[in-house]
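Submission checklist for the structure archive. All mandatory fields must be present; incomplete records are returned to the submitter.

[x] Identifier: C4-type zinc ribbon domain-containing protein
[x] Organism: Sporichthya brevicatena
[x] Residue count: 257
[x] Sequence attached
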Amino acid sequence: MGDRTLQEDPLNVALADQWRLLDLQALDTRIDQLAHRRRTLPETATIAELAVRRDQVRDLLVAAETEDSDIARDQTKAEADVDQVRQRAERDQKRLDAGQVSSPKELESLQHEIASLAKRQADLEDAVLEIMERREAAQARIAELTAERDRIAADLERTEAALAAATAEIDAETEKVGGERATLAGGLPGELVALYEKVRASSNGLGAAALRRGRCEGCRMELSTTDLNKVRATPEDEVVRCEECRRILVRVADSGL
């Protein structure tokens, strides 16, 4: 069906049915509002933000655990080095204490080695302490990230439950309004509903609007005197369209005619 104008292809529908078309529009507007509300529930954005942070924390936690594992290997090696030096120093000290070295040159060499081993052991023990401090910091970071991961998981669970509840509420109302809409549309002339649906699809969801006090409530434009006179001269059962926005224009009690 092509677009109808005031002058061509008139569609004649009882004025009462035209009024009911405004009720149909109100139900469709409500359904659109519910759909928009469902798409823009704040919980949806919150869940997306929490999911991003959860993934960030997961990656940071993996990195922290990897660092801790690397430091643990460094600590094990450093402690083994300390043990090795300590055992060697103990063997040398036992030889010295037991008087097993008689040569002055060998004695001097042994004493020098014991002193060198003592310095080496002290340096290695300092290195172990530094590694232990690094590992303590890494483990504190792991604990912090683990706690944050658990908080995020709890927040996600609560928010997802809230989203499910809000969505269920909206869906229930949408189903109720949809049922009312189907009943109302089923009682209207098919040709009127078809025209309404076509106009609505190309007019941001608004297919019919009231003519109130000389103004189209669809585009909010005041009709010119010429257009008002055309509407005034049109039989009440003939469907008229706004010359500005092309929506179905329904004449109501205070249309200003």
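[x] Structure attached
Curator remark: Confidence is low (pLDDT under 50) at residues 1-8. Residues 41 and 163 are 8 Å apart (CA to CA).
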